[in-house]
Amino acid sequence: MSTLAQPAGPFALGTFSTPGGAPFPGLLARERVLDLSRTLPWAPSDVRAVVERWDEALPLLHGLAADDALDRLPLEGLRVHAPLEPRQIFQSGANYRQHVIDLEVAHRSPDDPRTVEEARAETAAIMDRRAAEDLPYVFIGLPSTIAGPYDDVVLPAWAEQPDWELELAAVIARPTYRVSVEEALDHVAGYTIANDLTDRATVFRRDMKAIGTDWLRCKNAPGFTPLGPWLVPAGSIADPGDLRVTLKLNGDTMQDESTKDMLFGVARLVSYISHTSRLLPGDLVLTGSPAGNGLHWGRLLRDGDVMEGSITGLGVQRTRCVGESA
């Protein structure tokens, strides 16, 4: 696990525990972990408490990462939890050009007179116009969906079509309200990996279609957002708009796309959200998922499946699906 999971840059942050011990905020460097609750002056109890003082913490973290005299624990043998617990989760939908095209074709009516090629071409033109002229589509999720990067994912008995959606997640560094696109990335502490699971069967209400989407039901089951393994500082990621997002299911590659395919990049998403809501330190901005979800392949998640998700420089998460008894 440790070799594949090494992040970009000199260090990353995470939440760890020893066997039988309580979780603690840690600095990972060279496959060894420093307990930040014992080494930072304000003794943070968790990673969010580090992010809440990000401007003060960042130079200290660089110094700690370079100090080989400090007592560290080997990564091997530690349990890795979700890197932090956000107060708020903002989720971007329909944000990858090819993904939206695939979904539009998959969901089109049997009575649609267009060929597949015509439907794809028409949707592609709409997406290009949307990226140039329109606003992002963002909804909110619950922190109770957060799970660790190696935890089992329980598939609820009611979920008929559970699906994967691997995403780049930005972690907010400071209170952020009404910032411009040009200022937005200055408010990002770093990045991590999120798998934003969705039950496709309950995305749209069956009892009254005019109500629209039901994000509570389809996305907010406990553990439906495996997060991590690491929080990698923004300074270690040269360009969040040029990262490879890859998800493998039982070893087979299902998603493999660059964040270049995003319609709205991290800066536009953060700026847009901040003009409605006040983002807080540690909040997550999920940036959407690329093409290659289960609906596209006609293969949804089931008991025993193993998902392996990676993003350039951010490590690897592996989660096993466990079906819940009816």
TrEMBL record:
Keywords tagged on the record: Hydrolase, Metal-binding
Domain Fumarylacetoacetase-like C-terminal, chain residue ranges per copy: 89-320
Domain of life: Bacteria
GO biological process: small molecule metabolic process
Molecular function in Gene Ontology: hydrolase activity; metal ion binding
Stored InterPro entries: FAH, Fumarylacetoacetase-like_C, Fumarylacetoacetase_C_sf
Family: Belongs to the FAH family.
PANTHER family hit by this protein: FUMARYLACETOACETATE HYDROLASE DOMAIN-CONTAINING PROTEIN 2A (PTHR42796:SF4), FUMARYLACETOACETATE HYDROLASE DOMAIN-CONTAINING PROTEIN 2A-RELATED (PTHR42796)
Protein name as annotated: Fumarylacetoacetate hydrolase family protein
Organism: Streptomyces aquilus
